[in-house]
Protein 1
Amino acid sequence: MTTTIDLHKQARDILKMNDRGGYTIPTKGLYPYQWNWDSAFAALGFAQFNIDRAWQELDTLFTAQWDDGMVPHIVFHKSDPGYYPGPDVWGGIGPLPSSGITQPPIAATMARLIFEKDKTAGEAHIRALFPKMRAWHQWFMQWRLDQGAVCVTHPWEAGRDNTPEWDGPMERIDPIGVGEYERRDTKHVDGSMRPTKFDYDRYIWLVQMGKRLNWDQQQLLEENPFRVADPTMTFTLLRAQRDLLALGVELGLDVNGLDVEIATLEKGAASLWNNNIQSYDARDTKTGEWANCVSNASFLCWYAGIDSAGQSEQLQRVLDKVQFGVPSHDPESPKFDGRRYWRGPTWAVMNLLIGLGLEEMKHPLALRLRQATRALIEQNGFAEYFDPQDGTPAGGQAFTWTAAVWLSWAG
Ligand code: 2M8
């Protein structure tokens, strides 16, 4: 029988194995580069046994920050033909080869958690990172707001690539001229666990548009048909801004304007409440239409410091429907697909964020979620994601963020 001690060792070994020297890849083969939010989770994992390595992970991520403040979602430190689309397709305009979009801003929150573990080791890093994190958050505030909620401009930005929330806006895109391209993801894992060709044509078409516009945010604002106000981005940014404010106050840094930005985001979060389904939801800003989806991002409200009786009822319902919550999409929806990526599977990282929020609010379901995540990993290993009904591991294996969740929270 595998013991907790063995699993801790396995998790540490996964982080070390995926370490490429200063940054960590999500998993060998499928994702050979540094991903933004994966790295922030990796840092939290490293902090449980090597605090310097944790800070190095975040420091490296911010070396890829663009002049306008954006921190890209992939940093291509070293070219690898095993992943598509690579640096040439993206044509990122930052100091290092990178993609042209961002990902959920969880770095400030992870930085604060790591700082809390060892303030002496962390202070210099926080002082150096603070203005960079501030600039990134301000970039969101400048370019991405809709009624105070934060928008994504590509399905990959929310990190929940093929969630049913994007189905409506994706259907409105005609990927004309996308041309021939060769997918690499389905060479590493079974295609039934990945997004479809319909999705990929549109992912690549959006990348081509961004590159053609040289990632100019003003032009993208005018031309990009995909602009969805998203609970992932809104809740993670709101939380990150609160953490930045707390860190700034503690270290006597310039926090001017942060309180106003937080108030704006609180309004934005409230604007994502969809009364029809009694849940936080994504809103297509081009049509004003709701996605009408209860997703795992809907449950990030507590992480953002927002309690919600309605969302609690949804959580209870969803957890009662599957063995290993929180599923990425409502298990009672006809669009639910327990093995297909962000259309049903459970993701340990989302459980961690949701769970942290629930624990901070002393929510009665907090312990249940942590125990379910623990059992999921104990029984099924460190997969990228899992079928929420029976725990079947899916996607990539020996996955950095699942190992990090084990070390920092579930294990
Ligand atoms: C997945 O996304 C990438 C594109 O960014 C992909 O499928 O190629 C998502 O699960 C995303 O949230 C994650 O950061 C990334 C690496 O683990 O993989």
Note: Residues 228 and 284 are 5 Å apart (CA to CA).
Protein 2
Amino acid sequence: VNVFYRPLEKINAVIETYPKGIAGFRSFLDLMATEPDIADAPEARPAPPLAGHVRFEGVSFGYTPGRPVLRDLDLAVAPGETVALVGPSGAGKTTICSLLPRFYEVEAGRITIDGIDIRQMTLASLRQQIGIVQQDVFLFAGSIRQNIAYGRLGADDAAILQAARRARLDTLIADLPEGLDTLIGERGVKLSGGQKQRLAIARIFLMNPPILILDEATSALDTETERAIQQALAELARGRTTLVIAHRLATIRDADRILVVTERGIAEQGSHAALLAADGAYARLHGAQMQAG
Ligand code: ATP
């Protein structure tokens, strides 16, 4: 399904309807950096190649004692399914996604992938199979080749160029006099926000993980760039178990399933059409978007 390729009119209005949480946006890298306690269990084994059957079973979690964010959450995502998480700021969408790569430890319940508790897998083997696309793109000073190959060290040029093509980055590379050898960063070419995002997407194509977490951008790029990125993301999600943290309803209409996450848990779930017909929380969010637009 073409989840991400959507016209972008009216989406800014939706963002405005979500109050800004005090925590605001935190990058997954930040999360990793602030969580030194998580380590391999003594009995942890490298995960086998995963199909991506994700299950949260009775999961409870909070960042501070006495302030639970998730209570007894149950969620099953089939291999290849795209599930979009929508809902008010602070409801726990990012938190749900942060638990899957084990940036935090569940307090109760468990998370399994293909039936294996993620605590039984080594962290490296778990995280190697979860691609994360977020707003903040981590680039280092070096060539475009090196920056894409960060997704799979040792990848050859053919694989790198194929990933770039699928990420809609190939025309940019072709236009640069030094192609893949073009240096970026401080002393090299400065990439635009949209180009950086496509570079990040190219990395994940190269990484080829069975599971994907997409933290959708809160602000729109120009329409042309946005369309290229949405197309690339739709292609990236195809065949992978995908969790989308959605800030804009317009981009997730074609998700296999939409979950409305509130402080009380999953309030509602279903397809876009089914949720509109149910005339509940999602329909209200959608109505607010239409009106605001
Ligand atoms: P948004 O749409 O704004 O991204 P969200 O639905 O993703 O919101 P979370 O970011 O998961 O919500 O936040 C859920 C709750 O946990 C909020 O009350 C938030 O303030 C709190 N929270 C999130 N991250 C942390 C953290 N690192 N430390 C303490 N509290 C946190």
Note: The mean pLDDT is 85.
Protein 3
Amino acid sequence: MSEPEPPVEANAVERTDREHVFGTWSYQSEVDPTQVVDASGVRFTTADGNEYIDFSGQLMCSNLGHSADRVADAVAEQVRDVPFVAPNYTTDARAKLGEQLAEITPGDLSKTFFSTSGTEAVEAALKIARLYTGKQKVVSRYRSYHGATHGSISVTGDPRRLAAEPGVPGTIKAPDPYAYGSTLDPMESLEYIDEMLMLEGDTVAAVLVEPIVGSNGILVPPDEYLPRLKEIAHDHDALLICDEVMSGFGRTGEWFGCDVFDVEPDIMTMAKGLTGAYQPLGATTVTSAIADHFEDELFCHGHTYAGHPVAVAAGAAAVETYREENLIEHASEVGDYLGERTAELGERHPSVGETRGVGLFRGIELTRDPEKRVPFGERADKVSTGTTVVDEVSATAADHGTYVANMINTLIVAPPLPITESEVDEAIDALDAGLDVSD
Ligand code: PLP
């Protein structure tokens, strides 16, 4: 057996950060930030000189990798030319990105409200749905994440919502299409939603879903699920909101998760890959019917930094990069390869319960008992703290040069879209070493 590595001493930056900056979603006593000093392509380097393949695109957001020069240049140019104007002025990039989003989003989605995060994109979607329909309630699902502020955490279903409970009145949770871990069949869960909407009477403004669930474990519904969900929502005069914050911008090998199922939502929320993480930017895009409604009704919403010139410049350059470098097609091709390689992990490691996903959006769910599908003690009803088995798998993969995020017994694989097959191979070797720990 090899000797355990001695713990790495925190450097001065890490100690200062630890003292003065809150860590997210954690007991502060457990926060242990690592300084990153360089990032390039699909890799990043920490202050102790270690280099990692970024197999989760940081928080499933660095879709362009860390060397998107077109975006970096657009940001630098915009900061110098017009660093900021109030939202009632515009810039070349804002108009351009609005038009680009109308082009790349499906169907009749045509007009966008810009904000600064996925959370705010969801908040805007909720307000728009309520103003448009005149109804207040929203149905969302348990295994979902939609943001951290009061409205968006209230529609979030996972345990991160618990600290904000009971949340905003009128937020109702439905079951999920989670064939591996739920007692309900995915399509049966839909009929349950149909019945819920009937029993709620005509009071529900919208049904909000991640087309492919992200941080709650990469849950891909059956092909018929999303089209039927749209039908159910519309039968009850409710809108369908697709939260594409994580599943958008090539992650699935299509522009958006809902494109995988040929569904056009009434409202779409975006962030993360929208700028490839080069700037914070959120977007809420609506159909022309919804947009037209606000010609004569007050769109009672806004932020100082709605459509911040530098952020939208990054967004416009990012969309150009996806297009000109054919990154969506590339993600689809390498995504198939990634699917094969992650499936092999399932064959080699008894602690892998299921591998699933689409394109470069893959989950590896761990289990202590593949027959009974018993999870490793990490619970879906509590925010996990301390070090879990899946954390140990991630830590060992990191010791072998690959960063992979995890949540609720599942490794979340979502690398930058430009990743190559040989970089996938390198990362899979590290995951092999990591999964030896849970076997
Ligand atoms: N919606 C989804 C599907 C997400 O995955 C996230 C973040 O992970 C959010 C919304 C919130 O986005 P942000 O963290 O940018 O506020």
Note: The first helix runs from residue 12 to 20.
Protein 4
Amino acid sequence: MIISKEPTLTDAQLAEVESIVGEFDCKIQVIYGAHRNIYAIIGDERSETMVNRLLGLEYIDRVDRMESIYKLMDIRSDLSHHRIRIAGVELGTEPFFIAGQCTIDPERREAFFETAEGVKEAGAQVLRGGVWKPRTSPHSFQGTAKSLEILLEARDRTGLPVIAEVMDEAQLRIALEARVDMLQIGTRNALNYPLLACMGAATAEQGIPVLLKRSRHMGPVDEFISAAEYLAANGNPNILFCPRGTMPELDGFRNHPDESITPLLKEKSWAPVVVDPSHAVGRSRYVPAAALAAFCYGADGVIVETHVDPISGIGDDPKQSVTPAVLKKLIQDARAVWNLRTVREET
Ligand code: PEP
Ligand code: MN
């Protein structure tokens, strides 16, 4: 749909527009209005080059595409019936909880094992544990592959599947070799298209679920869904969208909480939404309310940083991890919200 700056295009301008779209096998259908005309593009209007060439014309104001720019992640795509199962749970059928430490402290293995037991006892389905950490300062603890062994041992002890973030191809290979059950793309790499493409291809065969965080600098919802499209287009459609707060921060919170984009994602895409309230608000005391808000907005699950003794933790744990006891209560409350939601949806 082309909107011109003036109410109508001149004959010469229309001819130029028709010639450009013609190069992309499209045509123009003029819709005559009382005060202005609109120029509909008929055909596959997804070409970015075509749109950019039209936008480069000084007499064009806007080009709105009707067709989705993402093919596989779109709610109307052939994948719309695709369902994702993790730890025996089909996403969307019950509240889904990923919980565990922000960071595994290699010097405190026992603390992680206790956290893992606590998370399991609380009722979470997947155990998280930060192995390599994306830290703003190069002087902060960066994580170590040694922590991967601790994560795997916690899996053996609890029987819970585990998730870890990887930031580059080398870490991806190590995590795959270790048979990590789920992978996380963090906020800093959410727009790292070569890494997304590489992960999509490397996980295609086994279909390892990927939790794709939203970039904190991410703009429109379409940009988030397009990032997921890189994974799907390279062979792995097992993607979970993870809103985790964006910039600029809301005064008092670590980021600007964005669980409210959940219904927008669900209108446009079929993929489950697992919100991260911990990084959104950044303080353990606000986490339960933010997590429940996510469920109210229709989220399928949440990922909650949890530590058996947050004060003694490293990374984000001292400030934003809840204890297993708080997690347990949160899971119960989430079930109540879930049931309320189901009743509302049915009426
Ligand atoms: C994390 O999960 O600990 C993390 C670093 O997340 P994010 O990429 O959202 O900051
Ligand atoms: Mn963290």
Note: The radius of gyration is 23 Å.
